[in-house]
Design brief:
381 residues, alpha/beta, Rossmann fold, 2 domains, 6-stranded parallel sheet, globular, Glyco_trans_4-like_N, glycosyltransferase activity, Glyco_trans_1, Glycosyltransferase family 1 protein
Length: 381
């Protein structure tokens, strides 16, 4: 039996959860059955990483708006190459690839993964609230239309599945849940704490709260900074990530007079080393799909504090293997961080416990489940 030619597509190649998912899928899909290629922007972290695996990368132009250049770029890709399966990740790639595929005479099997349904989340009282409402309606209509031309929808957590079905951008008959996976064996043994701390300039006796996430409204950094400012101790906060709210976040730290205790480390790929160096991981997101950084922090054995939103309670049980707090609740977040300082040890380990179902979060398992969906879909086509 010949290999199935699979094209994985995502709009941006910068480091992020969706890109990490695509990288691990590329790495662990069964190479005896699948020939994997990538379509994304020309340069970026993902491009560098998949090329290390010997994977072909097709540079394409994907715009976040209607663009003839984007249409031509993807049309040319489909004209020049025949793929058995096209698997899209993220709203922009999902829109363009599925749209262009409609007119193909020999259409590949089309799959789309929702890494969180971001456009469904609206923040009342914010600037542009009406625009957010309009965008939500438009994007839902677009995804409902494209669902007709999608062979399989994949959601990375149960909450995304429930929401996608409820708003009719997915249907139970062709929608599956495949949890995000990580390379657990890589995180099972932390790097030596002193070595890791020297790498980031942390003092040996300092108590460090750590956060990983792009500086965007979704990740709740404003609430993290305000909660941290209320702590009556000498702890420090280290934030890995970059984004549109970088300067606003730095300004807020100055305003709260905590700028000497907060470190903005920018976008980095050495997350294993960072998690080895910190004491407690904090993720105060306003919404999520299923955050990979949280899975990695749990795998490395760090106490975790996170918002009780979307896919996070599917990972953390409050008081059992971590602490859950309501989103946007500064007081609750402060109390949880204060409690973690008094008890900076993980609770029940999430990974390695036979009854917690943690095997579903292994990268190899994720790739196996998705590979099975590819095979079943091709047989029924």
């Amino acid at each position: 039996m010949s290999k199935l030619r699979v094209l994985l597509t995502i709009d941006e190649a910068s480091l992020g959860g969706g890109q990490m998912h695509v990288l691990l899928l590329t790495k662990y899909l069964d190479r005896e059955n699948f020939e994997v290629e990538i379509a994304t922007e020309q340069t970026g972290w993902l491009v560098d990483e998949v090329r290390k695996l010997g994977t072909i990368v097709h540079p394409i132009s994907i715009a976040n708006k209607l663009s003839w250049k984007s249409y031509q770029s993807i049309r040319q890709l489909f004209s020049s190459h025949k793929f058995d399966i096209v698997h899209t990740h993220g709203g922009t790639a999902g829109f363009w690839m599925r749209l262009v595929s409609i007119g193909l005479t020999d259409r590949p099997m089309m799959l789309h993964t929702y890494h969180g349904l971001h456009y469904l989340h609206i923040l009342p009282g914010t600037i542009g609230f009406i625009f957010q409402l309009i965008k939500r309606v438009i994007f839902r209509l677009i995804d409902r239309f494209l669902l007709k031309y999608t062979d399989r929808i994949i959601c990375v957590c149960q909450s995304d599945y429930d929401r996608a079905v409820a708003v009719k951008v997915a249907h139970p008959t062709n929608t599956s849940i495949v949890y995000n996976g990580i390379e657990i064996e890589r995180f099972a043994t932390p790097l030596d704490r002193d070595i890791a701390r020297r790498r980031f300039g942390f003092g040996a006796s300092e108590f460090i709260f750590g956060n990983v996430g792009r500086l965007h409204t979704q990740k709740g950094h404003e609430y993290l900074l305000r909660a941290f400012a209320k702590l009556n101790n000498s702890a420090r906060l280290a934030i890995v990530g970059d984004g549109e709210l970088r300067y606003e976040s730095i300004g807020l730290a100055d305003e709260l007079k905590i700028e000497r205790r907060v470190m903005f480390l920018g976008a980095r790929s050495d997350i294993y080393e960072f998690l080895s160096a910190i004491d407690v991981f904090v993720l105060p997101s306003l919404w999520e799909g299923q955050p990979i950084a949280l899975l990695e922090a749990l795998a490395i054995g760090k106490p975790c504090i996170a918002s009780a939103v979307d896919g996070i309670p599917e990972i953390i049980t409050n008081g059992v293997n971590g602490y859950l707090v309501p989103p946007r609740n500064i007081e609750a977040l402060t109390q949880a961080m204060d409690r973690a300082i008094d008890r900076p040890q993980p609770l029940t380990p999430f990974f390695g416990s036979s009854d917690c179902g943690s095997a579903r979060f292994v990268a190899q398992q994720m790739a196996t489940e998705i590979g099975n969906l590819y095979r079943v879909g091709r047989k029924s086509a």
